């Protein structure tokens, strides 16, 4: 696949993901997944990564960059969630966003580091909005959050308010899991909740506030009351 071919494919993806009709957005998701996972995935990812790395500091990301693609996907997720009041939102959108973020941070595919800094704050805000409101996306978005936290540098682009909300959310998830069973059983969900909470504790964007410290102590007290 030549760079001209890749550029043409990206433009088609951007066009479809920007469409007002759900069917076209779904086609864009399908095409994007094919290019991210198919035989041309490395060439595709490296092309986008080079375009992203070549951006000047004050230059807005264009359509052939990871940040632009992620903004489109976030908008697609929002449209899918808002349009699915009587059904579960289609998981393909969440899974595709997860895959894009993984690819953009994988040096095997990109050859570059920290390509998502221009949209890191946006992504963390979006993660919080989805985790608190869309239960069916919890697994994929929890995975996205852990992936970004492991990169560490991204944490400094997370608003402290969002960080505090995420800590409280996962404390509550662990506590609720214990409350529902009468004990803290190591199910897959609970293990991932605890792992996410650990990564949050290890990667704060700034010092803990007194209010957060107090909530963390109360949260652990509630959790440990169910530990046998």
UniProtKB/TrEMBL annotation:
> Which Gene Ontology molecular-function terms are recorded?
protein serine/threonine kinase activity
Please state every residue range assigned to the domain named Telomere-length maintenance and DNA damage repair. Answer: 10-160
Q: Which GO terms describe its biological process?
A: DNA damage response
* Keywords tagged on the record: Kinase, Serine/threonine-protein kinase, Transferase
What name does this protein carry? Non-receptor serine/threonine protein kinase
**One Pfam family linked to the record:** TAN
